[in-house]
Fold:
Amino acid sequence: MRPHQDYLEEERLGKALDVRLLRRLLGYVRPYWGLFLVAFLLAAGITLVELSLPYITKTAIDYVLIPPWIVVRAESPPTSDAIKLDEGRFLVRAQELPRSIRESLEEEGKVEGRYFLIAPEDPGAEVVARHPDLFRTISAGYLVAETDLEGLSAGERLTLQAPAVRTLLYLVLGLLALLLVRFLLSYGQVYLLQYAGQRIMFDMRRTIFRHVLHLPMGFLDRQPVGRLVTRATNDVAAINEMYTQVVVYLVQDALMMAGVLAIMFRLNARLALLLLAFGPPLLVLTFWFRRHARDAYREARRKLARLNAYLAESISGMPIIQLFRQELRSFRAFQEINRGYYRAQMRSVIVYGIFGPTISVMRNLALALLIWYGGRGVLSGVFTLGALVAFTSYVRMLFQPLSDLSDKYNILQSAMAASERIFKLLDEKEEPTGSRPLPTLRGEIEFKDVWFAYHDEDWVLKGISFHIAPGERVALVGPTGSGKSTIVNLLFGFYRPQRGKILVDGHDISELDLAQLRRKLAVVPQDAFLFSGNVEENIRLWQEKLSLDGVRRAAEAAGVHGVVKRLPEGYSTDVRERGGRLSVGERQLLSIARAVAADPKLIVLDEATANVDSHTEAQVQEALERLMAGRTALAIAHRLSTIRNVDRVLVLSEGRLVEEGTVEELLAKKGLFWALWQLQFASLSPAEGADS
Structure:
């Protein structure tokens, strides 16, 4: 019970970043480009706000929390607004003194300590009056050294620095305002991206389903249903993640890193260059991650697909597994697949486990280098404490996009794989159809030397020719695999013959509008398929013009009206998925009622009584007789007892038409039909079997 790997495993992925696929994906973005443009602008606004937050902290430390004035000795005023104290000494704001001049003065020992300057109108003037010996009166107000304030109480020091406290309040209010702006911008960005992503998913799902509706049956026969469902659900969701989690945020990350680097160079070029030394190792690590993460992700995805497929297949076939005592063998096969998935996942874990912590270690190394080098600068006076604090925030902001790279790359790769599969499906050619209209259908059918093969030249039909007159009832009989169902599929236009012609009312079916033709046909299949919904909806089958009375008349003609009346809610009773609430016979009768409601000129019966008991078979047979009255009917028959009232029988064998005639004529010939009859009615004479 080893699983078929080609069937169970997902196809291999293509490129991690395919420009051709990206161009096609942009086609779905085009109707919503305005939303994405606004999202990009919001991303720029969010970046500006994020970059401003550490700078506010720097401003609060350097201009408010640390005394802003210093005394320098110089021959001339070092700044335009310097206050002269006495000969050769000036009071200047530390932040307004150019760095080069300040470093030069500090090397020469011409910079004194930190000072506070209190204006006469400030509340601190009261503190000056109580402690006149601590303050020096100058033209601009009262000057006091930072070291002289240690003897004052906490309240007096706050009163003395009332302007600084007020400035600090303004900075906090500004910070809160920026946080509010950031919230609004982030909300707008998330809403726009999610709205655009949902609209794109809506459009893609609609496109995929519309395309699947028009795909040829030959393609659908080769595809597992679950795979097609995945195309319209999981794969579309993976592309939505790329739009909402990657595209705009990659641009935002790039803006953030560029802004961080620009501010770092403005604060201290030497320190910024020192931190850039981490760039080459980061690039090497990123390229390593890109290559190994792709391989690990690909293998894990394939193993997961195989695991899910085998698990679903085993659960569906559990009665067979238990009946034939294959539990141990099935478990061993599952264990092998599960172990393969575990190993693939562990490989992926190792790759992600190396990348993430390594980025974190490098970030912490950068912070350590920053504290060591920047701390020395603060102690020597060439670097402010606020700038150092801001630098630590900017370093974290610089490394954060790299930490998120693994998640974004995973999403991007998943989206590329999903888009490759979606576009591969959309590139499948739709079912070929002609354009000639067929306003009315008389029901005449003719096959002219039809040859057909599902694969290459493995012929299923070989030179089939027959004619069915309007209103004639014809049965197709033959051993399994003789080509009966293939004839019906060709008649419906599901496949095209490689040779020969199929005529409907004298028109080549390849030239007819298939959608219009199929609206005039009806089929009663061997396994009646009912859709989720109520009885009325299943009989009407999207015929909006059919009233409830019309539905009831169709049910009465099919002999199922009495069954429906016994249901809890009558015609409004939910039949559940695939008609699970009804028996096989009841589903078949509903299928006949559906065909009656369609009022076709041509009816196809695909062994409509094969899956029902003898009592139900009689009911179904009576309903079929009423259905075929006045219509052309083509019936595939395995139970020969169901074809005693047909006008003619076509007998197929190995893809060829070997016998043709009425039941009595074929029995008299004692050919293949007679042999089949004998197999089913061995205990009866041919005449008795014909009467049975």
